[in-house]
Amino acid sequence: MLSFFTVDCLIFTFHEGKLKVLLNERNEYPYRDWWAMPGYFVDKQEEMEEAVNRIAYEHTGLKNIYLEQLVAMAGLKRHPEGRILTVAYMALVRYDDVKNKVKPVTNYMRQAKWFDVNEVPELAFDHNDILKLGLEKLKRNLNYSTASFEILPEKFTLTQLQQIYEAVLGETLDKRNFRKRMSNLGYLKELDEYQTGVSYRAARLYKLDKRKFLKLFA
Amino acid sequence: MLSFFTVDCLIFTFHEGKLKVLLNERNEYPYRDWWAMPGYFVDKQEEMEEAVNRIAYEHTGLKNIYLEQLVAMAGLKRHPEGRILTVAYMALVRYDDVKNKVKPVTNYMRQAKWFDVNEVPELAFDHNDILKLGLEKLKRNLNYSTASFEILPEKFTLTQLQQIYEAVLGETLDKRNFRKRMSNLGYLKELDEYQTGVSYRAARLYKLDKRKFLKLFA
DNA sequence: TTTAATAGTGTAAAAAATACACATTATATT
DNA sequence: AATATAATGTGTATTTTTTACACTATTAAA
Question: Boundaries of each Nudix hydrolase domain copy (chains A, B) (predicted)?
Answer without folding.
Answer: 2-138
